[in-house]
Write a structure and sequence with these properties.
The chain is α/β, with parallel strands linked by helices. It has 17 helices and 15 strands. The chain has helices spanning about 20, 50-55, 70, 80-90, 90-95, 100-120, 125, 150-170, 185-195, 215-225, 245-250, 265-275, 285-290, 290-305, 315-330, 345-350, 375-385, and strands spanning about 5-15, 25-35, 40-45, 135, 135-140, 170-175, 205-210, 230-235, 255-260, 280, 305-310, 335, 350-355, 365, 375. Strands 11-10-9-8-7-6-5-12 form an 8-stranded parallel beta sheet. α4 (about 80-90) packs antiparallel against α6 (about 100-120), α9 runs parallel beside α10 and α10 (about 215-225) runs parallel beside α11. The radius of gyration is 20 Å and the shape is globular. The mean pLDDT is about 95.
Length: about 375
């Protein structure tokens, strides 16, 4: 099969109606790998687009600070695991964490897309094959940031998105309650109960608290009062790096505690599992190491009796890799899926195609080679930000 002949890093910035509302779906950075026969593979990361481009295009300084293209050009895309290690070693000096691992993630995803296309198989087969017969996505319900808005307006939007999600076919949702100081903890309990009543009993519901609390006592007070809401897991309860607080909360709450949204690599996740004691880890595939590393993280979670539900708030590229990840990983009960029919982001709606079919809460396993999505070149040219 053809070796890698070119790497292109494309910053993309879509139309922004209200940046606070659209969050991470307003921009992305695409890595496109092209082989000798002209086949392409794409990946993305959730990081500042121009900074990622500069990082990947920087010239080689020495063994621990290498240009990504020098590592990739001439390589076999099927050797994603070996290339991951070479990229990881080659970015030791400028940043093994943070931006470095974000950039590696985008490349890694593009490698699986390209290798799948070269060999005519879906990406999940390169991860070891399907471990389930169908896929279960959950829809994130995000009413927008709370600043300057009355709580009732936010609850009205949550209700609208709940209805849209159910009509689209979802049977699992995550309610974002990023209300912060607009409401007291007691009022927040009542709002979550209202949200649960908006849904059918057979709909799985998680809650994202947006790092609301600075101590586990306050978080526990709220969680103890919503146990009758049948919450699947509680995301972002405490400050992200408060592992000791997460451990205290996990030991006392009957609701699964999620965390590690901004964590990267199996070594950081191991800390979340051993010190933080969380039951659900949520690294972003496009930030935490790509499909290669998230697969390793899933194996670690399976070994330690935890579940992995990757964060996936970006474009259709991220939504596509979530499908392949869940297909190959038994420790992933659901995956985050941003539906353009529920959350209207132009970049999410137009950047890639096609959109998979969702029926009664389930998606079929992907059958197309690679990630199974293609770039809308018109959208890329319209929104690319490097020209």
């Amino acid at each position: 099969m053809g070796r890698i002949a070119a790497i292109e890093v494309i910053p993309v910035i879509g139309p922004v109606a209200a940046a606070d509302d659209l969050d991470g779906t307003t921009d992305t950075v695409i890595v496109r790998l092209t082989d000798e026969a002209g086949l392409t593979g794409i990946g993305e990361t959730d990081a500042p687009p121009h900074v990622v481009k500069a990082f990947l295009e920087m010239p080689t300084a020495h063994l621990w600070s290498r240009n990504a293209g020098e590592i990739l050009i001439g390589a076999d895309p099927l050797e994603a695991v070996a290339l991951w290690q070479r990229l990881y070693d080659g970015t030791f000096w400028p940043g093994r964490r943070g931006l470095g691992i974000h950039a590696i993630s985008a490349i890694d995803i593009a490698l699986y897309d390209l290798a799948g296309k070269q060999h005519g198989v879906p990406a999940y087969k390169l991860l070891g094959g399907a471990r389930r017969e169908k896929l279960r996505p959950y829809c994130t319900i995000f009413p927008g940031m709370a600043q300057g808005r009355p709580v009732e307006a936010l609850m009205t939007e949550i209700n609208r998105q709940f209805d849209a999600a159910l009509e689209t076919g979802f049977r699992a949702v995550k309610m974002e309650v990023l209300f912060y100081d607009l409401v007291t903890d007691r009022e927040l309990v009542n709002l979550i109960k209202r949200g649960r009543k908006m849904l059918r009993d057979d709909v799985l519901m998680a809650v994202d608290f947006g790092y609301r609390w600075h101590n586990w006592h306050d978080a526990l007070w709220v969680l103890e009062r919503i146990t009758d809401c049948d919450i699947f897991f509680a995301e972002a309860t405490l400050q992200h790096d408060d592992l000791e607080g997460h451990a205290q909360l996990a030991a006392r709450s009957s609701i699964r505690i999620g965390g590690a949204e901004a964590a990267a690599t199996r070594w950081e996740i191991q800390e979340w599992l051993t010190r933080g004691k969380v039951g659900v880890v949520q690294p972003n595939i496009g930030r935490g190491g790509g499909l290669t590393e998230i697969r390793r993280i899933a194996d670690l979670c399976e070994l330690m009796g935890a579940e992995v539900v990757p964060h996936g708030w970006k474009t259709g590229i991220t939504s596509a890799m979530g499908r392949h990840f869940q297909a190959a990983c038994p420790a992933a009960p659901v995956f985050e899926y941003i539906s353009p029919k529920v959350f209207d982001s132009p970049l999410r709606r137009e950047l890639v195609f096609p959109e998979p079919t969702l029926k009664d809460g389930w998606m079929e396993l992907p059958t197309a080679p690679g990630l199974g999505v293609e770039l809308n070149e018109d959208a890329v040219e319209r929104w690319r930000a490097d020209r």
